[in-house]
Fold these 2 entries.
Entry 1:
Amino acid sequence: GAVVSQHPSWVICKSGTSVKIECRSLDFQATTMFWYRQFPKQSLMLMATSNEGSKATYEQGVEKDKFLINHASLTLSTLTVTSAHPEDSSFYICSASLQAPYGYTFGSGTRLTVV
Amino acid sequence: RKEVEQDPGPFNVPEGATVAFNCTYSNSASQSFFWYRQDCRKEPKLLMSVYSSGNEDGRFTAQLNRASQYISLLIRDSKLSDSATYLCVVKNNQAGTALIFGKGTTLSVSS
């Protein structure tokens, strides 16, 4: 149980285009979704926290106009990387918190390459 | 200073070896502690939670020292399948807060 389905698993896009990443909770309601980014040999860095029906809270240094997060329902959260550039190439992963004691569940991640 | 710091690694050990990873955290408000395992840039998977009393799960033993803000993971009798990156993770106990990850330490077990 408690599966988060993340799509796409990988995407290659041209510089200047936008990419949407979706995370769906399949068998539970995800009130809160966390979005992380991981560069090679680096830790997962929290980008933003999204709560269903309200605006996302972004971490310092993350541009909210570039990384658009929508959490319009309890089963779907999306991250759109707008006007992507090569430096946005990274591994993006979502995570939902579950009621104790179940902890957190992660999507399988999206590897974005901007060329 | 990073919130969670880990041994630089990588650790290259033979099968059967015992290996220890260390981690320190800077936020004294941290209340929950975990070790996660990440394979080949896939999603991280929970290995074990870490408790003040120390806890063991098979070949894996985790320890927490709140006074020193220090966490450790010991792996005994290493297997080839233990090769992965081990992430030290902390969280405060406010509802709805995210996990904070260390950079990870890479373990490579060879035959």
Entry 2:
Amino acid sequence: GQQVMQIPQYQHVQEGEDFTTYCNSSTTLSNIQWYKQRPGGHPVFLIQLVKSGEVKKQKRLTFQFGEAKKNSSLHITATQTTDVGTYFCAPFNYGQNFVFGPGTRLSVLP
Amino acid sequence: KAGVTQTPRYLIKTRGQQVTLSCSPISGHRSVSWYQQTPGQGLQFLFEYFSETQRNKGNFPGRFSGRQFSNSRSEMNVSTLELGDSALYLCASSVDQNQPQHFGDGTRLSIL
């Protein structure tokens, strides 16, 4: 079945520093979604990427889908304490079970 | 527009009992998925229902079952509870499987 890796598992940054998490799949994907889960909360949808090489921005967040559609990244510029949480990638392929990556837990020190 | 509603929010059971969790999706959403979340295993997919049919199933034992009603509301049942079933159970609804999923607040199940 599909294997999904996310690195790093944990990241501690000082407020104002940048942060990047990477998601790698063992198979070519139909699309990939990203979610954020705040401590004590539920996952919240951030973005969906569909096209090879696609780049989407949401304010300080930049999402990228690899050319081969097997990997993706989420980059946060100048982190804030409100960015604290776990970021999950969710690679998708038709006919297969929906899979969430193990997540990257981000801590931001003020 | 009301979000995904899960009931109950908290549940305490003992080993061997069974439990039923409920999920009301966002109006118009026909796909409902269930996940188990534990600190050690992350978000594990249980199953997905669409128009009352189970379309996909994760790697969980047969003690875990579900169903979906004609109004898209879904229930999940776990029989013969084990200590390892203690987890946060999340329900998510979407227009279809490949579309963004909207999660409920979850049911936190504790097994004593």
